[in-house]
Amino acid sequence: MSIKIKRFACNQLYENCYVLSTPGRCVAIDPGFHGEAQLRELYDYLSGEGLKLEAILLTHAHFDHVIGVKAIQERFGVPVYMNPADEKILPEDVIYTDTLGIKGFDPSFKWTGVDWGDELELAGIRFRAIASPGHTPGGTSWYCESEGALFTGDTLFAGTIGRSDFPYSDYDAEMEAILKNLMPLPGSTVVYPGHGDTTTIGRERVTNPFLEPFNEKEEPFDPDLPGIEIHPFQ
Length: 234
What we know:
The chain has six helices and 15 strands. By secondary structure, the protein is of the alpha/beta class. The chain has a single domain (4-232), classed as Ribonuclease Z/Hydroxyacylglutathione hydrolase-like (Metallo-beta-lactamase, Chain A, 4-Layer Sandwich).
């Protein structure tokens, strides 16, 4: 079964929210929608496509990835899945949003804890929670093996890795997670990061300067990535 992936570039930090859908059903990953205009774009998309939102998955709890969760959960009554180690990030989010002058953030959404290694089937799509701590303690990459798709949040990007200078960040844990848990995935796996463009595991093995000890020059990779529908907010 093929799934459709639509990307929304959300809030002031251009955070990527992904809506994964099968006919009539969908899941949102990291809904960072900020303000009524951005939320309306999401609602109009779901209505226009005839999609029922069934769940929200979080890669981690930084505010730019979760700022839309409360409003969406109140509207649709959907469960939110997050690793419990990131619960302590939410009070820090309020400090950051206040400092940046970002209004309307409410971290009091209800969430269900998931452990690394858990598998969830949502909207007809099977996800596996892969341990990706380091950027945050509970960082989680969501892997759809059947689709060859990996949603890495702020752990792995095209050509770089997530910052580790925030409270509760851990550079060593991040590097260990990337090298042990993400790099062994098939090279053709498409990486959908929390910011910026898509890449592949194979490409990062070869070209990512932060993974230089791991770089394998013989690793083949296809420079042409599958397209996704992108909705950048104006």
